[in-house]
Task: structure prediction
Amino acid sequence: MSKRLMTGLYWFLAFEFILGAITKYWPGDTILSPAYSMKFADWGYPPWMRFVVGALEGIAAVLLVIPDRRARFLGATTLMFVLTGAATTHIVNHDPAVESWAAPAHLVIMGVLALVNWPADWRDLLRTPATPAARTPRPSHGTAKVRHIGGES
Result:
């Protein structure tokens, strides 16, 4: 896949999740559904939980558009956790398929993006990006004279 197409995909997905985060914070009904405070209560969660989910979606969306494999991996895995909860919630509550297809579909997409951006070493997630260190000059052969014991130098 071309780099431009992948960048466009990341931006599109980030836009979707930013809109999702905004609707979680929206106090009333949205264009397509009732207020998330009501939806979360109907699903058996406290209404304030929508703010946690909205914050996670917003942060992860920002991480998806940062052109760094580590940031994109963290964004995709964060969304995988959120979407696992969303898909499970829809299954447990027997929501109709027309209302619950998006969470599992996005879960698969985020799984693929997490695999694409998988770090070579898990410790790379904990390290700060290394900057090239300044090299110290090596001493030349003529700068240091060594005296041999019992001999001439």
About this structure: The mean pLDDT is 84. The chain has one domain: 3-121.
